[in-house]
TrEMBL record:
The lineage of its organism: Eukaryota, Metazoa, Spiralia, Gnathifera, Rotifera. This is Prolyl 4-hydroxylase alpha subunit Fe(2+) 2OG dioxygenase domain-containing protein. It comes from Adineta steineri.
Amino acid sequence: MATTTAIAMDINDNEDIVSNTDTLIYDDEDIQLLGDEINDNNWRYAFQEVLDDIHENKLDDGTRLLSYDNPCKIRVKKLGNTPYTFPLSNALCSRIICEHGIPLSLINTYDFCGTKVTNSAWEIDHSAIDFPLSFTAAIQSQAFEQLHLNTSDLNTEFYLNLDKLIMFGPCSQTKVYNFDEKLFIYLATVLVFLPSYYTGGNYRFIDDNDDSDDVHRHTFNQHESDNSKPFILIVPSDCQHEIEPIEKGFKLLLVYHLVSKTSSTHEFYSLLSKSNNNSMNIQNIFLTQRLNHIFTYWEKNLDKMPSKILIPIQHSLDYTPFFSMLFRDKYRTILQLITTTLKQLSSSSSFLIYSAILQQDEPFGNTTDSRLLINNLKLLNTTNDFILDLNIQHERTVIPNEVLGELHMYIDAYEQSGGRQQTLANGNVVYRNYSKFHVLVIIPYEYQWDLLLDDYSFACHHVSYMLSLPTNSLNILCLNLLECILRNKTLSILSFDQLIRYFIQLYNRIGLTTKLIQSLKILFQHKQFKDELFSNKILHYWLNRLVECFHSWPMFSMEFLDLFRKSISTSMPTKLNEIVQFLLQFSHKTLRTLLINTLLRHIFKRRGLPRHILLSTCCSILHLLIVDGSYSVDALLTLAYNIIKRVRKTSLANEILDKSFKMYLIPMLINIYRDIKDKEKRIHSKISLSPAFILIYEYCLNTLNYYCISTLSSSSPLNIISMNEALLICPCTSCARLQIFLIDPKNSTLIYDLSLSLTVDHCLRHTLSKFPMLSIEYKHDPCTGREQTLIISKYGYEQEQKQLCFHLRRLLLQLHQI
């Protein structure tokens, strides 16, 4: 088959110039320019473009003339040792059928009209026939060449096994057969059309693995070619074969099966990945160059790339990976290009290649909560470094962003829930299961621990075990594992206090290395770590320990300040009190001062005290500055005077008590006093109270003393409702008394006698529920315990305020007892 290739003079213009030569010329500068354009935004597109540029398919090769110059001969055991030369006579064919023929099973037992199809094909077992070794060697050589198995490292791992000779006699109906009853055993079927005398009998095979509408492909008419020459055709082992009506004569067909010495799919992949394919064409060399630039960028920018990528190497229609590798040559080319590219990198062990199975955990049920996962991982490349040994049952969840190529095809296949039904020649029914597909997993060596991270506790167990060993050779592996934990996106909850303990242990073992610094930066950038920075009390303790270890590293302060700045920008003002407590427990004084200044600059973005700053914010800041003790008395007094000034703007006494004293000032004083006493216990030294604290304390105490000895509001009773509103109240006897009481400004108390009725009228209860400002008190009979008197008062709210005033005053006077 003659092929024409193109000379690409300018890759950027995508212009192809047809030439009569078999050479492709590419400009190295264009290749280099393409590699320089790889970045974190287009690497996926560039990778996908390489995969899409591979379109090889062995099934498109069709039937070929067998390269065998000698006459084709056969020996039949029961007919003596005399070799018979093809084409065989009709009489000899009939005699062979009589001696050794077994009827070949039909697929189409009935035709479209319902007429029973008469069988006219017989199979002769391989044990009854014999062919010259040179003939068998020619068939194997040409089959291996077509399947690219003719290299020195592959041809010894595969062989052809003669299965049967099939003789098709005269018939008037089109018939469909399955030559391979033992499915999933053979990798491919090799058909040899022997020279024969017959008329009609065109052949075509039905490719059930084709995703196009026309599944009948590759019709072969031996009469149009050369009836005296043998032809060879390689087809999948799971396809069906159609023979059109034969007018006269016998059509002879040899069936070989391709068998591999490898016992598993992973060994097959490993064998192909290590193959030295010297026949790589110039187009594949160009694709290798493009892949080289992508992997080089990945190697230098691990933080910008995924932890791993998955590349499917099995088509969604293929229920065996051998079919995809042998016939859909795209997947085998992908495997060989990637392995070749990784060998060309500066460090051949920078990336690890695994073969794995991609599946959905619940492919036959409700897919809303299902996940994609990989299992049965096997390493394909070799390295002298430490490699994880994962068992077959190990699973790892993957996210769609990590899958390149035809993910949508596999999702569609999963949703078909069960697959397609196929009936074999022996009557058995096989369901093609779409739940599992083979993929390549490419992962940087440093991120190989990512394969363990479905179980966070399991990953931490590995870190603890490696740190417990006396050797230092595993320290870098521990760092790699910690970095993978922090980069992982499928872990929902992390224990950061535990991770910080690991970092402290590693610091004590290896010191302050560049790798350790990089891991700490990743820790500080983790979103969950930022969310828990101010709320996790246990994390505060271990963060203090971490600061004590790393305070001598100048960049640590910068990185930690940047972390603090980003955290407060997302936490203010709702978590201000938590931020204050975080800063107060911070043990490193210099860094704590820097953090406090950062917080103040974030709050007071202009000079002075802007009006939009809440009173609660001012109280929290004063609390922080007083307990910290690093700021001048003048600064604290200025802030305290501002707080008092803002409180005095509230003229009503009720609002001062509720909205200022009760909510902010008194709790602030109590917390300041408590934190100072705790600080005295830690440093074993007496700390004098700040003048700003005393100023707020005296202001609150004097104000409360004044309110306690005076009336909070006007002494005259209140009119609860107006005259017009009173007319809307129920006119019953009980409610009429309540109506008069509400509009009478001189009457402050109303008493109902319940001793006669023993209960309050239902209508009165409903009316009272509309006036929450009234004070309602029941007095009970000491003997019976029943309600005896109902007392309604208009002074309930003022009494409550006065009680609050006494309570707050008592808290200040007994502050040392709290």
